[in-house]
From TrEMBL:
Keyword Hydrolase annotated: yes
Classification via InterPro entries: AB_hydrolase_1, AB_hydrolase_fold, AB_hydrolase_sf
GO molecular function per UniProt: hydrolase activity
Protein name: Alpha/beta hydrolase
Gene Ontology cellular-component annotations: membrane
Tree of life domain: Bacteria
């Protein structure tokens, strides 16, 4: 019995030593890969100082109206995500895609992701970069909160909002889903496991499935998207946004007054899979404007603009005119 216990003890020690070596090797692999990625991951637009940190803005187009894009939670590179809309918009309107802190090419910040802090940062970025209102905001998913809050704080600068499967503030405020800390995923990232998995084409394709496989995104931008995902996901700012969303939603709801400008709510049909609670709040989202309409977009998932960029562009231009 004693010999068996000694052997078991040695096996456990050897096993733990092997695990520690593998984890250490994976961590070194991840650090080396991150340094390599950062050398090629250069801003697509320009960096501007906002509260002492670098914040990224990509702009283009022409016209009297500027369309400002607010990405959803966890969308690592907004410049890539909204790219299917640029070509059609550019001849008619200006556009500006910002990266919140923690996203895209922007720095991370030590400031908590309170909705007023986020909104003030966006406003400052638009000012220091020389953008001129009126703005037409396009908000995807959780980006709906900052678009509405921006309009509440700076009503004279907004002429309309298009929600691309954006959740209503009431939906987020009443959401009872638990917020996970993501520790396990962070460990997989830090030890290079996630990066190694993304060497598989099937894993990459699976990760893009909710975005229609990035069907309308050029191959060079798909590479940027992959690099951004490996560099940005699970950072402190992105995680704090998730922790704060109920508090942020309450701030927006408590200041609710129907907007005088148009609001278009584009809602995904989730490829025919019903979600009664989401659909209920989407239909009620029109109460946020005196000039509101909702349109359910068939045969799409949550990233509607990756399925029907033509339709989304048309709705944006309709409000811009």
């Amino acid at each position: 019995m004693k010999k068996w216990l000694n052997r078991l003890g040695k096996t456990v020690v050897i096993g733990l030593a092997v695990i520690l070596v593998l984890l250490g090797s994976g961590a070194i692999y991840e650090q080396v890969s991150v340094r390599k990625d950062l050398k090629s991951y250069t801003p697509s637009g320009k960096l501007y100082k906002v509260d002492g940190k670098n914040m990224h803005l990509y702009t283009g187009g022409q016209g009297d109206v500027t369309v400002v894009f607010a990405s959803g939670w966890g969308t690592a590179n907004p410049y890539v995500d909204f790219s299917p809309l640029y070509e059609k918009l550019a001849p008619h309107v200006k556009f500006a895609v910002y990266d919140r802190f923690g996203y895209g090419y922007s720095d991370t910040t030590d400031k908590k992701r309170n909705i007023d802090t986020i909104t003030n940062e966006i406003h400052e970025l638009l000012q220091v970069s020389g953008q001129k209102p009126p703005y037409l905001f396009v908000g995807h998913s959780l980006g709906s909160l900052e678009t509405i809050r921006f309009a509440q704080k700076y009503p004279g600068e907004v002429k309309g909002i298009v929600m691309v499967d954006g959740g209503s503030p009431e939906y987020y405020y009443n959401d009872t889903a638990p917020v996970l800390d993501g520790f396990g995923k962070k460990l997989l990232i830090k030890t290079g496991v996630i990066r190694m998995l993304f060497h598989s084409d099937s894993v990459i394709e699976s990760s893009r499935s909710i975005r229609n496989g990035l069907k309308f995104v050029p191959d060079d931008l798909k590479k940027i998207d992959l690099t951004a995902s490996l560099l940005k996901l699970e950072n402190a700012n992105i995680q704090d946004e998730l922790r704060q969303f109920k508090v942020n939603a309450k701030i927006v709801v408590d200041d609710k007054k129907p907007f005088p400008f148009p609001l278009t709510v584009l809602t995904s049909d989730y490829l025919g899979v019903k979600n009664d609670e989401w659909n209920k709040y989407e239909a009620e989202f029109t109460s946020w404007s005196l000039q509101a309409k909702q349109y359910v977009v068939k045969d799409t998932e949550h990233y509607i603009h990756q399925y029907r960029p033509d339709l989304v562009s048309d709705e944006i231009l309709s409000l811009a005119k």
